[in-house]
Amino acid sequence: MTKKIESHLTEDRVIKPTKEFSKSARISSLAQYKKIYKESIQSPSKFWSKEAKELHWQKKWSKVLQWTPPFAKWFVGGKINASENCLDRHLNGPRKNKAAIIWEGEPGETRTITYAQLHREVCKFANALKNQGIKKRDRVIIYMPMVPEAAIAMLACARIGAVHSVVFGGFSATSILDRVEDSGASAIITADGGWRRGKVVPLKANVDEALKKSKLVKKVIVLERCKNEVKMKRGRDIWWHKAMENASTDCPPAQLDSEHPLYILYTSGSTGKPKGILHTTGGYLTGTYSTTKYIFDIRDDDIYWCTADVGWVTGHSYIVYGPLLNGATCLMYEGAPNFPDFARFWDIIERHGVTIFYTAPTAIRAFIKAGDHLPEAHDLSSLRLLGSVGEPINPEAWMWYHEKIGGGKCPIVDTWWQTETGAIMISPLPGATPTKPGTATLPFFGIDAAILDETGKECKANEGGRLVIRKPWPSMLRTIYGDKRRFKKTYWDDYEGIYTAGDGARRDSDGNFWIVGRLDDVLNVSGHRLGTAEVESALVSHPSIAEAAVVGRPDEIKGQGVVAFVTVKEGIKHGAKLVTTLRNHVSKEIGPIAKPDDIRFANALPKTRSGKIMRRLLKEICAGGEVSGDTTTLEDFQVIASLQKSN
Ligand code: WT7
């Protein structure tokens, strides 16, 4: 049986950056990218120290990298503060009174906070934290809606050297409890509630529920956001505005070691409890600063909007740290993309004049399903650059994004990275890289990405294998919090001294990386390994289909059979005829090997709030109908009930 990962989708359309974009971009041609990339791989320390020097160091490092695989230390001996770099650094020039955050709440109110104001709030809140007894190295859980105070809380922790661990506001009490226990957190910063689809998410009540089972947390600071009723526990709970009342605005940034822990962020693995990914300061700042600068080619007059939640790594690196390090203006939106309807994002772009828009393929597919009339009714001409992150973007969604949202003129940066990598690893540079719909294209400077086979040999063009990074990079995870062994086993055991990302991928003859999907989602059909993402992409390329999720089910003859769960576009009838059409369509797009054995129609697919389809649940439904195991990250439990009924 072959162990090769096969990849059958081909894409011939090439979209080059427009002359206009290239002209003013930092990197303006493929040749320039290649030259810098080559130098950066020959001497990564040289490239990264040049980038790091653009930040403010309280004390310069004595050594760029100390590498004892799999443990890296970057900018050894250096002292640096994240909040000082995001804020104070911009106060001595024209950025002082520039908007740092433009915020829109779901109900519609807006706030603009300048760099000087944000600095003041962060200093005050940092002092408030100190007044509550929170010290350097203490772990602080942040469980908040998408409000500016979430960023203020993160930056205030960073200012005093406390380690933040943001827990996504859509997670349940059980998830909070797990993270409190694993990180040993002594404080939680939360809010009474947050708005989502017109309803209040009871954040404080969830915290109370979690803390019934833990004695670790001594302080809970509660922001008043929705004015919903909450219970305050005497001695433990304090309102944000009360804690701020007597706090001084003077808070010099703590002098922190370059390797001082900045945050822990939990991410799920294929097995076991979530992993606490630990990021440290100097290297992480260098990586997010540099990638934001080159990949979004961000400028002082941009209005940059990343639609992620601060509860995910995208929110950490590309709402808070990367953009603020660059002195950019960030838009932040509290609520759901479909509130009051699916035109909300287009309305926000038009009203605020957003120039850079960074979102996820799952959102794009939802917008396609909702209909072209929604973006068409809005003026999106302020946009100059689009981004995609989180999963492979299927070519149909790519083209729609390019034409309907970008008006055919905006480059799209399809950015591949992970919670673990801290910053973008593979992506086009918008003024330089010719793109093909569906590929994240080429590695960023200093990133030695490659595709290896089982034996550690680099794969030939178009041969599928495992995506790895062969050299350490500054924003890499340092460990799994409290579990070095799992860190080693998960990422470093396949090949000596080489990071394994857990994704299957191939490179085409131009060197572009095509991500096939997570290796644990890879199917084995008659000895051929197939990426579920490819079959899904083929299904979604059919005009009737809005979204698809593909899983394997045991099959006596083929090892695994292919089961596809699909949702159809508005107004499309589904039935036996469409099943035949779709099976033939996949057969035509990829080959008979990928033809789904079973196609099931669903109204919706089970997803996490970050938009990842929970294939594990679909597999369980295929295997027997009952869903066991952890469903705490599922956004809408009713989806499962309806899928089971349709069985
Ligand atoms: C996994 C990481 C990176 C922030 C959001 C997700 C998949 C991510 C892409 C992309 C194809 C992608 C990979 C990766 N992924 N971006 N542009 N093209 N796949 O972070 O939850 O840590 O997930 O998301 O499978 O390993 P995460």
Strand arrangement across the biggest beta sheet: 5-4-16-15-17-18-19
Radius of gyration: 24 Å
- Biggest pleated-sheet summary: 7 strands, mixed
Total count of helical runs of at least 4 residues = 20
The average pLDDT value, as a whole number, equals 93
Class inferred from helices and paired strands: alpha/beta
CATH architecture of the largest domain: 3-Layer(aba) Sandwich
Summarize this structure briefly.
With 647 residues, the chain is an alpha/beta fold. It is globular and about 70 Å long.
Structure description:
- By secondary structure, this protein is an alpha/beta fold.
- The protein has three domains: 5-81 and 264-514, Rossmann fold (3-Layer(aba) Sandwich); 83-254, Rossmann fold (3-Layer(aba) Sandwich), CATH 3.40.50.980; 522-646, GMP Synthetase, Chain A, domain 3 (2-Layer Sandwich), CATH 3.30.300.
- 31% of the residues lie in helices and 23% in strands.
- The chain has 20 helices and 29 strands.
- Strands 5-4-16-15-17-18-19 form a seven-stranded mixed beta sheet, sandwiched between helices.
- β28 (559-568), α18 and β29 (598-601) form a beta-alpha-beta unit.
- It starts with a strand and ends with a helix.
- Bound molecules: 5'-O-[(S)-butoxy(hydroxy)phosphoryl]adenosine.
- 5'-O-[(S)-butoxy(hydroxy)phosphoryl]adenosine binds next to α11, β19, β23 and β24.
